[in-house]
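Q: I'm writing up a methods section and want to include an example of the input and output format. Could you take the sequence below and give the corresponding predicted structure tokens, formatted cleanly so I can copy it straight into the document?
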Amino acid sequence: MSDWVQVQGPDGAFRAYVARPVGQPRAAVVAIQEIFGVNAVMRKKADWLAREGFLAIAPDLFWRLGKDIDITDQSEAEWAQAFDYFKRFDIDAGVRDIHATIAQARSMGCTRVGAVGYCLGGLLAYLTACRTDADASVGYYGVNIPAFVGEASNIGRPLMLHIAGKDAFVDKAAQDAMHAGLGGNAKVTLHTYSEQDHAFTREGGKHFDADAARLADGRTIAFFQAHLA
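A: Here is the clean output for your methods example:
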């Protein structure tokens, strides 16, 4: 049970993919995209959350860069396109759009709303915890988080971060900075997967690891069940 809805943000309207559970949702979760748009992989993440009983809503955060961007990680040309979007993406505007999506989820009947993001979305999930009223947030292999670690004092609700120990986009110095800046925060839970590379939960991706993905995803669902009940 899925469809697309329009979300009215502070800068204009944009679309969002919605996956609905069977029966009454236990809560809502905003699913935050990677650098490939709300593509098939991202929609499957939303569908997974719906199977777990959540109303999942995945906003098109690249709407300012192009219409209905939906690419894969399966060719060099698409990677180049994705990195171009990443370089041009306005992070602050993206967080505002996520905040609007949280409000949209609440207007759809869910008083408790969480967020989960991957790669670029992992950073945005962290900033969602810092800047919005999301009830719980989860980030997978978020990039560039150390640049924003000064905002950690604003985290008032639970945040979980999944860190890939061999992440080609988040080196050891960045990982150490994340642990140093966030490890002492009682609201933050950090999980490191020492043998995993970036995007280890992206099905079909070069570094997908089924066992590690199952572990991380199980932790995510348990986290949401605990904090969005």
